[in-house]
Amino acid sequence: MRPFGYLRVDSVDEAVRAAAGQPGAQFLAGGTNLVDLMKLGVEAPRTLIDVSRLPLDRVEELPDGGLRIGATVRNADLAAAPVVRDRYPVLSQALLAGASGQLRNTATTGGNLLQRTRCGYFQDTAKPCNKREPGSGCPAVDGAHRDLAVLGHSAHCVATQPSDMAVALAALDATVHLHGPEGERTVPATDFHRLPGDSPERDTEIRLGELLTAVELPPPRAGARSRYRKVRDRASFAFALVSVAAVLAVRDGVVVHAALAFGGLAHRPWRARTAEAALHGAPATEEHFARAAAAELAAAAPLRDNGFKVPLAQSLAVGVLTELADRADRAGRADNG
Amino acid sequence: MPTADGRRDGADGPRPVNGRHSALTLTVNGTPHALTLDHRTTVLDLLREHLGLTGTKKGCDHGQCGACTVLVDGRRANSCLLLAVAHDGRRITTVEGLADADRLHPLQEAFLERDALQCGYCTPGQICSAVGVLAEAADGFPSHVTPDTAPSGAPVALTADEIRERMSGNLCRCGAYPRIVEAVADAAAAGAGVGGR
Amino acid sequence: MSHPPEEAPFPPGPPPHPLGDPLVRREGREKVTGTARYAAEHTPDGCAYAWPVPATVVRGRITELDTGAALALPGVIAVLTHENAPRLAPTGDPTLALLQEDRVPHRGWYVALAVADTLEAARDAAEAVQVSYATEPHDVTLTADHPRLYVPAEVFGGPGARERGDFDAAFAAAPATVDVTYTVPPLHNHPMEPHAATALWTHGHLTVHDSSQGATRVREDLAALFKLGQDQITVHSEHVGGGFGSKGTPRPQVVLAAMAARHTGRPVKLALPRRHLPAVVGHRAPTLHRVRLGAGPDGVITALAHEIVTHTSTVAEFVEQAAMPARIMYTSPHSRTVHRLAALDVPTPSWMRAPGEAPGMYALESAVDELAVVLDLDPIDLRIRNEPGTEPDTGRPFSSRHLVDCLRAGAARFGWSSRDPRPAVRRQGDLLLGTGVAAATYPVQISATDAEAHAAADGTFRVRVNATDIGTGARTVLAQIAAAALGAPADRVRVEIGSSDLPPAVLAGGSTGTASWGWAVHKACTVLLARLREHRGPLPAEGVTVTEDTRRETEQPSPYSRHAFGAVFAEVQVDTRTGEVRARRLLGQYAAGHILNPRTARSQFVGGMVMGLGMALTEDSALDPVYGDFTARDLAAYHVPACADVPAIEAHWLDEEDPHLNPMGSKGIGEIGIVGTPAAIGNAVWHATGVRLRDLPLTPDRILTARAAPLT
Lengths: 337, 197, 712
Known about the structure:
The complex is a heterotrimer of chains A (337), B (197) and C (712).
Chain A: E1 5-8, H1 12-21, E2 25-28, H2 34-40, E3 47-50, E4 59-61, E5 67-70, H3 75-80, H4 82-87, H5 89-96, H6 101-106, H7 109-114, H8 165-171, E6 175-180, E7 183-188, H9 189-192, E8 211-217, E9 224-231, E10 242-251, E11 254-263, E12 270-271, H10 273-279, H11 286-297, H12 309-336
Parallel strand pairs in A: 1-3, 2-3
Antiparallel strand pairs in A: 4-5, 5-8, 6-7, 6-8, 9-10, 10-11, 11-12
Helix pairs in contact in A: 5-8, 10-11, 11-12
Chain B: E1 15-16, E2 21-28, E3 31-38, H1 43-50, E4 69-72, E5 75-78, E6 91-93, H2 106-113, H3 123-138, H4 160-166, H5 177-189
Parallel strand pairs in B: 2-6
Antiparallel strand pairs in B: 1-2, 2-3, 4-5, 4-6
Chain C: H1 28-33, E1 48-54, E2 60-66, H2 68-71, E3 76-81, E4 103-104, E5 110-116, H3 119-128, E6 130-135, E7 154-155, E8 158-159, E9 161-164, H4 167-173, E10 176-184, E11 196-202, E12 205-210, H5 215-226, E13 233-236, H6 252-264, E14 268-271, H7 277-280, E15 287-295, E16 301-313, E17 334-344, H8 357-375, H9 379-385, H10 403-414, E18 427-428, E19 431-443, E20 450-455, E21 461-464, H11 474-486, E22 493-496, H12 513-534, E23 544-549, H13 551-555, E24 563-575, E25 581-591, H14 598-617, E26 649-654, H15 677-689, H16 700-708
């Protein structure tokens, strides 16, 4: 790990000004991924600007019924917030499916969204990686890629985005708030993470010097139910092989709203727009769920050793949607009875 | 519901000594320490190499095993991923700070009684983590296995499955898990998590 | 067939008090309060820190080393390379010839060592060392028909290949046959304490604190490497954070720390980074198994072949002796057991808990289960029909063998009798449930050890032996053995272990520790007691001390085939939607002589079963064909089981009487728990799903892919 300067800031403006004035500066919040990567030599900031004590640690209900989540809210606190558990269960579930209790106590909302891929080649500075060292190549295409992408990848990068929380945020149509030298802007969570294309060194749309300050959620869909489910190699404390975040509203047996996002399949949370379009107005049955998921996954282009992810994503999506529809059905009958 | 986290901000933050070192204050097991540290120094290495508190273990140095678990302002964290400079003003509790003089913490007693350890290297992290688990459950923090139907913010009963899930950030290669689950359950049943912070 | 002596050497009956008592482990309080110090937790005055530099090529030579940038960093004291490091004398362990030449035999081999005032500076300096290489073509990929495969002459005391009868003819004639292949990937020990050492030279005397399973061997090797007398070296291994075989021999940390301390004139501390461990502290080599079983309609096995293919490195030969258990397990008049290995450009494999037995019994016990299906026999019944009267390979009688009793007692406890043998018929929603059984075995070995027993004038006792407690509870059980021999309460016996200044002892490995150390302690205490009985009047102020060793007792090979046995039962659930397999229940029933401390013994049995669960379900590694290193090097990528993976586990044992072992009547128990568990889980997965998976681990991808394929 290279030596670095350290600066603690007290306001967002101060943070952004400090970053603008110091080439090689990076923001430090929980540090659970950044410090890890600094030890690996993957990240070597010249200065760390400590934003962990900025007053961005609140979860606030918005006048429109939505929710504003400060960037330094700890993952454990966000998952436990009653407003999240009661109104956005998919988000709480996604957070609790990730990492460990210790890490969730430390990691922040902003840091979670900005965490880097766990591709083994990215983490090893002695090997090529286009994400770490543009132009050096991607050994994962022909190498160890069982855990990597089946959708949206390129010849330059087959990495996956590792956050569980980000998958839920994509399904919830969240908005990411950024504060930079040129002021504030927002990016939809579904667009925040990029596909690798020919510039895999950029994970997200965040610009140099911008600070992620908050995530906002729109009000929950009336009558919708949500669920996050994750498949992994051990029962806890492992990254997703495949995960699904789903929000489903059913009226009279017909889908009136469906939002579906996959984790573990791509360089970003994979919002399944094709599947959603197929679901809208369709009967809420397993058969239609299967058809919709298959339509989405038809675009999959698995690598040599990760073809299993496609049928896994298919069956997982069908399972989660069916479970949500059954719950809606039971609730509907209870209401009528 | 988790309450405000009770963090006590170091008044003005660490004081830079040069571009690579800062002066700061950390309270460890109730004792304040004024230190000048390399910015690269983690809380784990501070404890082990500067303060002689080697009870906190380095198993992986990357947040993947939990052997370095300590309590930061009462909440469990992987000390290997915490830069000491960023923790100016914080209160750190390590395994050495759990016993009350010669009287062991109920979790330490339970680990001994259940033989919930073998080589002992993960044990301090397991015990600190379990202290955090008891408090988190009492404070209404849910886990991956907490039923959706459980009321938000209400204390969570620590079933064996709850303990298994919540303790999964602490790897034990000796395979003491079944005994660890029993030990944590014993301590929970004895009320060790209530008012323990 | 040799005839055993008529008289059993040890009297029958239960071992005397306090053996068999569930005493709390003696160092438990230090461990739960964090005061127990491990190898990297000693910081002598002026201590420097070291950080190693691994090779980033697979095979080749170092052409240029530039340490200038590293040495220019603040706080850096030295960078050791093959150009300036102290010269080491060759020893029998070429993995310890560190920084001696420019050759790189595998990726991850250490090529330099940075030493600095602080840990942070040492790490930074290691990253700043520039190394250029001339690379050579490499091969790290093991295949069943690899052109470099050979049969080793000897595998841990037995022949590499063994034929009895006419296997080919018997197999061809057998009405019921199984001919199947299994694979076990490379596996990593990953003890929670990374390998670490602190080294200090004072007036030509080398003192090290080393994370080792045996300080006696470490001292011997250091003496040879540095050309010192044994009395010029002290090795402490007071508390050791697990080893599972990987700390059985000296590892790079202790040699490098000693070299760096000599080179810099400062005490040096070196803890190997977790990600380096797979390349430098050994691993379980991958094994490719072909098992062929031929049986008559009565289920009696007439032909048994277990042939394994594995790798070793170009540095040293190590054979994962996975075909060995097939030589002792079942009736097999016609048998072929063969090890073949290829020396590849891979890290050197070594011991990992139950080397040979763990993967070998996975394959054999899975194949036996397959044979039971072919014959439509209950798998327990099939095993009972093939219970041999004497050891099949040598005809030697078993000193004790209670496998059948374990199978029956375990079955009763597990509720096996109500099992419906049909596969894939127990469904709960998306889950399929199944149960499985497998046998376990591990050999009994005993090595010569010295021990000292001392009676103090105040009526207390002290036992000294260089045993190592790697988590087994050695201090506690040795105190019990001493107390039993002396007829004294255990709390009047102090035990000193974990230092090479103590009487020399065999390492904590091969499930030999308690028997080997314990015998020496028992002998010393027995002699001491006799001495005290002869003594008249008060003891002299300096007390009475006796030192004994067990060379004579252990030098003759036993005329008996001596093994512990067990039966493992598993219940699993398989999620048909996600492919996730979870163990719901594990139950082990063992026969391992007298159990000397049920509290610590249970922890060892259960701990072994947990590692077996990991081998079955979660632990996976592979060699990257291009880059030559393991694909799973850290604890995020290499999935040792987490707490949530592990269900309630029961371990039971029969109190087995065996007069042919040692004065305590004990067999080793540190390894048998991992044996059998993977096959029991795999067999349960078949019972749940009707699909036979033959490649470990049984991760979701494998389950889904297999279930999508036609039934096999």
